[in-house]
Design goal:
alpha/beta; 6 strands; disordered C terminus
Amino acid sequence: RPDIYHHIDITADKIIDRLPPSGHRSIAAFSGGLDSTFTVLRHRLKLAGSGSYNPDSVLLVQGFDIGYDNHDYFEKVIERMRPFIEKLGLDLRLIQTNSENPLFQDWEDSHGAELACCLHQYADEFQFGLLGSTKPYDGLVLPYGSNPATDHLLSGSGFSIVHDGAGFSRTAKAALLTQYDFAVEQLRVCYEGKLQYKNCGQCEKCLRTYLNFLAAGNDRPACFDTIPKQSLLSTIRTHSQAQVAELISIMNYAKKRNIDADWLTDLQQSINGYVPRTKLSNAKKKFIIGTKRVVAEVLSFLRLKRAIKSVLHKFYEAGSRAVPQKKTSTESLNVTTNTAVNACIEN
């Protein structure tokens, strides 16, 4: 995107030669989402055969979809994925970062680089960092923040970034995960819901993921506390080429398997309703997000931000129909926390 970004010079005060660690250890970026869960499960169970990297650790980042100061929700995310991590015998690594600032970037452009940056914090222990693919080879959207053409360029001399899973559509990934209940139960794909540690079952991402499972033959995926209403499928509104490409991929998957269901009509309606964002709408979106961030920073400066967020979180919790969560703890997990990636962009 040369109309948005330009080259910058980076000058180091000192360059240190360091030998890479010996061995073939790998660590995988992990959010509990469909793509990262597929990558971790596939490689940990060696379902990729000789191509398996067999990660022994996963990295969860606080500061992307869960706010870097929202510790309560982040603990609940850990609690949600705990059975999956323990089942596979994985170590959990944590990073807290404030790098995801909408005033300075577009997440769809930057997420691959930001995840790679976090993975590089462990380059002294591992040789490979796995990033789960977001798009299949036959449905690539370019330019995009994470893709098989550019992710490997984020590697270092002793630490390789591996873009994994582009040979599978998102629906094919859902089909594999359906065979492992413990993997589906911990899935967390929602970023628009008020309770960020679970799936709301109503937003575009939740409904699209439900479509993935429907096409894969699973009409009651355990990751949803309340199964999404199929009547909502026709209300899906896409505003980016990446989103509509996902819906088309689901439709193609269903057609290849001769699936005939009413929800396909709703899916086609959503595809036909795709309206690309204009420069004006993109600018408006960035302005709204930026304004929210400025307000948040002002409240933080006035020492009011934490109190207001606490009240809002309690309000959202009170309105939730979910079964109350048990008190969370990371004591039984092997957890390592790294707060070294607090970016300077907000200073």
